[in-house]
Write a structure and sequence with these properties.
By secondary structure, this protein is an alpha+beta fold. The protein is built from five helices and 22 strands. Helix 2 packs antiparallel against helix 3. Residues 71-208 form the CzcB-like barrel-sandwich hybrid domain.
Length: 379
């Protein structure tokens, strides 16, 4: 009886040992397999790209002639006529105004009479000198008389030359009584009226030349501090914005206006349309462009301590790391950086609030990344 009980207990022990051995073998085989990696956190990503930041400044101005010519008489006198008015189109060589020529005509007549008298004196003095020269050769005259005749001839010749110059001067002054323009353009101002007695150099009319036009703006000093000379300026009529022309800065006033404290800037227009007449009000758009900069979406911005930062994706490991950045300025939905990121780097633009350094990431469902972004966020 006892032998039978002993054999049953031994069989139960052997079964338990086999079960334990089998369980251990199963556990050992399971331990040889690698545990599955954790799935990356879904995020949105963007590739950092360098660009140029542009800002437009609009100013009001007017169309002016590139060159204005002020015409004046070289001599004084009474204005006889002024056949042109403001707005008239004039051609080169056209008469703008005339002075009363009576005085100059009388001066010319007197100069011509003096010229004829000088010619007579020269003829007489030459004959006298030739006679004294013959007598001197024969010994029938004295040296003082010979020298006197020679000096008289020289004096008469000088008087003749002076009379000829006076005639030319009188003819020029008579020609100066007619004021002609040597350029084509439009009369923009008149300063005298017929019947007035004017002085030499007094402006009669002002003409805007037809060869080119400028757009003139009053620019604040803050805008001058930028690279204004390199800017491309778009000029449009205030009452017809579709009429446009482009130009560049041609001249900047060296001194500010004492009232407005602005600087007059002249923009040379390239092939302006006919609708941009002199005096037209225009709006100039100055397209200011900075050097190469980096901009990122505002959603990518996070914080590390008190410094702004972004999550940068490692393309090889699909992990993220936190990096400090320097912000140049904030725009609507965009952040302009001064430094901290390089073009070509990949950053997290969505889902950055719950990340930690070294965490694996994957692409958000529905996002269509570039090939570089797809490689960076593959699980």
């Amino acid at each position: 009886m006892s032998a039978i009980i002993t054999r049953r207990m031994l069989a139960r022990g052997i079964g338990r040992i086999a079960a334990v051995t089998l369980l251990g073998a199963v556990l050992v085989s399971c331990g040889d397999e690698k545990a599955p990696q954790a799935e990356g956190r879904p995020v949105g990503v963007v590739t950092v790209e360098a660009g140029q930041f542009s800002d437009d400044v609009q100013l009001s101005g007017e169309i002016q002639a590139k060159k204005d010519v002020s015409l004046a008489f070289r001599i004084g006198g009474r204005v006889l006529e002024r056949p042109v008015n403001v707005g008239d189109q004039v051609k080169a060589g056209q008469v703008i105004a005339r002075l009363d020529p009576a005085l100059e005509q009388n001066a010319l007549a007197a100069a011509k009479a003096a010229l004829e008298a000088a010619r007579g004196e020269v003829s007489t003095a030459r004959s006298t000198f030739e006679r004294q020269e013959r007598l001197m050769a024969q010994g029938f005259t004295t040296r003082p008389r010979y020298d006197q005749a020679r000096r008289a001839q020289e004096t008469a010749q000088a008087t003749l030359e002076n009379a000829e110059a006076q005639v030319e001067l009188a003819q020029d002054r008579l020609g100066f009584t007619a004021l002609r323009t040597d350029v084509a353009g439009v009369v923009t101002a008149r300063r005298i009226e017929p019947g007035e007695v004017i002085q030499p150099g007094q402006v009669v009319v002002q003409i805007a030349r037809d060869d080119s036009r400028d757009a003139v703006f009053n620019v604040p000093a803050a805008v001058l501090d930028t690279h204004l000379s390199d800017a491309r300026i778009r000029v449009a009529l205030a009452d017809a914005p579709a009429v446009t022309a482009y130009g560049s800065v041609r001249e900047v006033a060296p001194q500010a206006d004492p009232v407005t404290r602005t600087f007059a800037v002249r923009v040379g227009l390239q092939d302006p349309p006919e609708a941009m007449r002199l005096g037209s009000t225009v709006v100039g758009t100055i397209e200011l462009t900075t050097a190469a900069i980096v901009s990122i979406p505002a959603s990518a911005l996070t914080q590390q301590g008190r410094s702004p930062a972004v999550w940068v994706v490692d393309p090889a490991k699909s992990t993220v790391s936190l990096r400090d950045i320097d912000v140049l300025r904030f725009d609507a939905g965009t952040i302009i950086l001064s430094q901290g990121l390089a073009p070509g780097e990949i950053i997290v633009s969505a889902g950055a609030q719950a990340l930690h350094p070294g965490q694996r990431v994957r692409l958000l469902p529905g996002q269509l990344p570039s090939s570089r972004q797809q490689a960076a966020v593959s699980p």
